[in-house]
Amino acid sequence: MLVSERVSRFIAELTFPRACYYLAATTFISCAASIAVGNKYVTPVLNVAAVGPFYLWAAARGRYRPAVGLSLLWLTCLALFFTVGATFFSERAGAAALYAEAYNADFNAWLADDTVAFGETRGYALQIVEEGGLAGGLSFITGGIGGLATAAVNANYVSYNAGRLLLGSTSGTYSIVFAWPFWEVLKVIGFVNLSVALGVPPVRLILRREVDYKMALEHAFVGLFFLATSVFVHWRAALFWRDVLADVTIIG
Q1: Cα Rg, the chain, nearest whole Å
Q2: How far apart are the C-alpha atoms of 88 and 136, rounded to whole Å?
Q3: Angle at alpha carbon of residue 156, lines to 91 and 223, rounded to 5°
């Protein structure tokens, strides 16, 4: 059987549960490869290569919810694997993730002093606007792939920071719960929904298939809601989050 025939048969027989299984496996491989390579510019490419075929499988069929579900599963696996990688291979993980070491340094400075700019909600909101605009623009141009790459970059540097926090923790329970700030989780969920909302329609148009703009608009609003909620949670909970982590973390 020709390779093209095997690929066609695989796609035809692919179901959502089976896609989830394969996606978890490919994400682990991409994460391990990115840490082994240790190149921060190659890492997003490897990460997106793990989810791209499955995302496009859903996008080509106009299935918005499976596209979001697969993307969120991918990011959850990526965050878990990269956090573990940062715990055991800290130096290589830091070299593999864009902004990882800078984010970790700023986070540690915030834990030591709650007046530093890192903890300001205004600065975080501006970051949301900048990164959201980038994710949205890239998604529209690349059919969603560029937006997912932006989400992967965010997941990697926050996961690296989480791994470093676990290394310096005096209380594993608190650090596991608080290592990934909840507002960062909401931000990534927002990016995924925006990426799908702005990425699926171009894919469908390229394939000359009908576009469900209502679903696209719904996911765009969901994405914006999560981003706005992320800012609100940062405003209301960041200092509490910081105080808990500062009490159980050896900063350094």
Answers
A1: 19
A2: 34
A3: 170
